[in-house]
Amino acid sequence: MNFETLDLDDDTLTFWREARAFFDEHVTPAVLEDERLHGGGFNEGLHLAMGARGWVATQWPTSEGGAGLDAVRARIVATEWARSGAPYILASTTLLPPIAIRMFGSPDIQAEVLPRVADGTVRICLGYTEPDCGSDLAAVRTRAERDGDEWVINGQKMFTTGAQFSQYCFLLTRTDPSAPMHKGLTVFLLPLDTAGVEIRPIGTLGGERTNFVYLQDVRVNDRWRLGEVNAGWTVVAAPLSQEHGISADGSDPTIGGPYLAECEKLIAEFVRWAAMQPGPAGKSLLDDAAVAERVGEALVKVEMTRSASGPPARILSSDLLVQTASELIDLIGPTALLARGSRGSAGDGAFEAGFRFAPGTGIYGGSTDVARNVIAERFLGLPRSTPRRNKNERNDSPVR
Prior knowledge:
The protein is an alpha+beta fold. The chain is built from 13 helices and eight strands.
């Protein structure tokens, strides 16, 4: 953890004020209410406004449509975005496939897609998980068969969050069933308006929407293939590493930021609620030393976790949100479990909603168990958590 402080110059502080004002303007009560009701993880108006500033891809060069920000200013934008409570999931996943598009896409595909990602008009969902393979990504069964200059794809993906708002799917398919698991895969950037693609919603415990994507005799031109045939594991390696917090350039993707912001929102809501509740000696519950101590401990843990990076940040932020949501309910009592709109609900359902949302964060973007495997295998050099399935399977594949 890095606890070093930064002295920000006047220009950077001015930028910070501008960033806060931007999100205060665009993240309206209507935006937040829509996300609460539908859980889509995306707001097009906000996304396009960010794209107009280059803030969809804050550190991409201006020549590619990004803002060309340094790490500090990019972190400021990310911090204010998380603080605002705005939906963020699809905007985050959209930036993963361009890593592979730059490395493996043709110049035509790069020129067609990347500028539109930067300006916000193109979003990309991740076509990884299938009903029978879960986190075992190499076990995908969605089949792609070559037919001249086209491929015919049949199969099913699930947990393709944001597909209903996306123009493309970063799709992992199996093109050689006879090859070893990691060597018979091919990746396509599939236009989602292609005939044979059907998107159906999945509701989650946390009130979010994700999707099934059904693929029936979907024909896609070979120009949309990324990388070599049967070399798809190499294509997904860099985006997977970024998703798990292993950045190739050593930068901090701050993957735990939104979860920490959620912790802070729950704590702030508790402070408001407790200040109105009767406590000892005619004072408020917030004046109870034991209550104040637990609130202080939670805030200290948030700040400590914010100093982490990479896979540890992924684990710590999710675990802390689960712990915080549970501890606040323990402090409040049964009324914390009443949903929004219920009579007597503490915080008008904020704690109930936070408690439902928290467990899912241990799964998103590869589970925290996967992140622990990454730490063990990549950083500590420990043996694989699971043995190789056959002698042809390499031992240096990305952990999923």
